[in-house]
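The following block was generated as part of the benchmark described in Methods. Ligand: 4-nitrophenyl phosphate.
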Amino acid sequence: MEPVRILFVCLGNICRSPTAEAVMRHHVNRAGLGDRIEVDSAGIGGWHVGEPADERARAEARRRGIDITGRARQFHPGDFEWFDLILAMDRQNLTDLHDRAPTVAHRSKARLLREFDPDAGGDLEVPDPYYGGSRGFSTMFDQIEAACRGLLGHLRAERLAS
Ligand code: 4NP
């Protein structure tokens, strides 16, 4: 059976989306679903292509027992074909994805990650922590963690049930 393929997208692919990729992979593997759910991440912009994730993001993840590996890459149009769900960190990322979607069907794959956090309330963005202090990275991680738990529950109920 084909796996469900999830792509996390932010602006630079060095803070938020690599964190989401690592957190989601961690939960997927712990749930024994590594062969059913594939995860990746990409940035709207290309400034940091080839770089590892921001040290502050990696430090926050390490504190919580999670390794962020991999290097930044830029989102490309083929991602709309390959991935089933494309999850944006903020509304600007979502707008940028919508602008790049070739069809309505592709457009509908793009959503906000925090839509999957039942406790997110009205604020569905993971704000960019890049220019903030380390507290921004802790808040970012909490938001991503809660949303990834909700996302895994959604996938189990809606996409993996057979
Ligand atoms: P990210 O954070 O989108 O969470 O990876 C950013 C990192 C770098 C830049 C913007 C956002 N930048 O403009 O260089």
